[in-house]
Amino acid sequence: MSFAKKILTWYAANKRSLPWRGERDPYRIWLSEIILQQTRVAQGTPYYLKFLSAFPTVYDLANAPEERVLKLWQGLGYYSRARNLHSAAKTVVGDMEGVFPSDYKGLRKLKGVGDYTASAIASICFNLPEPVVDGNVYRVLARYFGVELPITSSEGIKYFKSLAREVMDGDNIREYNQGIMEFGAIQCVPKSPNCTRCPLKASCTALQQGRILELPVKAKKAKVRHRHFNYLYLEDVSGKTLLQQRTKKGIWQNLWEFPLIESDKNITEEALVSQLDGFLDAGKVQEITRYNDSPVVHKLSHQHLHTVFWMVKTDEILENGIPWSDVHKYPVPVLIADFFAKIRTFEA
């Protein structure tokens, strides 16, 4: 039995019941794939259902305010993907009369749709013989065939795509693509896979050579940048606080956050006070309290944010102050959302 046939047989017996399983609607498949690029199925499913409830069709998503899209995306990270999702929906509605492209090349033209997503939509929705290559597929192919090329290198990406096309079952591409992704997700897992019950064990190169944990090979990660954030939770005499929107490109573009002082290292209260004039009249500050003794380390892909929250009470009235009852309406980074939850309970 061929590699592809073994995958198909395993998938028929082991596939999970998922909300998008069996779907052919490109809008729903596209939505599920974009969300699952960010997280695992267990964490991504509630987001998928939440988005479908808020935006049942691509028209609903295209016509939604960006802030609402970002708010629903909150917690997934990589917010540029949410903005691309919104932009692509507008393209489908505005330029294509609400109809998704039905071929790989057309799908690739949508903002935020790369090789993997285009291949998934083309195969699952339109039964086109386009192989998918995601993290799960890289792992299965690298282990089974003993491929040592780094999956993050240009050479490796090209090779794995070619290999995936060579071994796929083009006649059953819809089921095969879903099957190999599922196989990597629940059978050929990154750590401690149950190789004794694997249908590929008799011919798996990595298993025969004792190299399961060595493959796939990844190139060395980029150096992590360490940044020091000092967030000001301001509270004026009317009980209002202040949020500001991050409009520059970079992390969390268009999300909202407390006024921020970024420093080269941890700073003292005295050093903080000397920089308050950019946000309020330092002479009217009643009280400053450091909320967390040790910085909260928030880890992004190439950045670690060492964050301290400062509680600052002032006698002045904050211009554009926001009542606490309204802060939950703003899309914020999960770092800020966690702080909201810790300092006060409110009904979202």
From TrEMBL:
Family per UniProt? Belongs to the Nth/MutY family.
The UniProt catalytic activity note for this protein reads:
Hydrolyzes free adenine bases from 7,8-dihydro-8-oxoguanine:adenine mismatched double-stranded DNA, leaving an apurinic site
Could you tell me what this protein does?
A: Adenine glycosylase active on G-A mispairs. MutY also corrects error-prone DNA synthesis past GO lesions which are due to the oxidatively damaged form of guanine: 7,8-dihydro-8-oxoguanine (8-oxo-dGTP).
Name the source's superkingdom: Bacteria
KW Chloroplast (keyword) present = no
What cofactor requirement does the entry state? [4Fe-4S] cluster
Q: Which UniProt keywords apply?
A: 4Fe-4S, DNA damage, DNA repair, Glycosidase, Hydrolase, Iron, Iron-sulfur, Metal-binding
The top EC class, named as a word, is hydrolase
On cofactor binding, the record's note says: Binds 1 [4Fe-4S] cluster.
Q: InterPro entries per the record?
A: A/G_AdeGlyc_MutY, DNA_glycosylase, HhH-GPD_domain, HhH_base_excis_C, MIG/MutY, MutY_C, NUDIX_hydrolase-like_dom_sf
Recorded name of the encoding gene: mutY
The protein's name in its UniProt record: Adenine DNA glycosylase
Q: Which residues form a coiled coil?
A: none
Q: Give the Enzyme Commission number.
A: 3.2.2.31
Q: Which SMART domains match?
A: ENDO3c
Hydrolase found in the keyword field? yes
In this chain the HhH-GPD domain maps to 35-186
